[in-house]
Amino acid sequence: MSMASDDNQGIDEGxxxxxxxxxxxxxxxxxxxxxxxxxxxxxxxxxxxxEFYSAYTDPTYFRxxxxxxxxxxPQLQVEGDVIRLTSDGLDxxxxxxxxxxxxx
Length: 104
Prior knowledge:
Layout: H1 13-36, E1 43-44, H2 45-52, H3 59-72, E2 76-79, E3 82-85, H4 87-96
Antiparallel strand pairs: 1-3, 2-3
Helix pairs in contact: 1-3
C-alpha cells in the first residue's frame, strides 16, 4: 500500500471492515436511546473505543479509522472528538437495523 497520501497514511482496510461490521448497529441503537431520553446523541470517540473496541489500544489509530469511515460513509459525521449520525444515517438505521424505529 502506498503511503504517498497523508489522507490514507496509517489506514488499514481490514480494520475499517472490522469496525464497520459492528459500528452501524451500535451507533443506531445508542442514538435512539439517547434521543428518547432527550440527551445528546454525540458519541465521544474515545468512549466508543474504550467501551466497544478496546482491542484497539491506540486511541489515535482508532480515531483515524473512525474519521476515515465518516469520509466514506455519509451516514456518519466526525467533528472534533465526537461521532454522530447524519440524516442519511438515520435513514440507514431505519432501513438496515432490525427493529429500529424512528420514534423520537
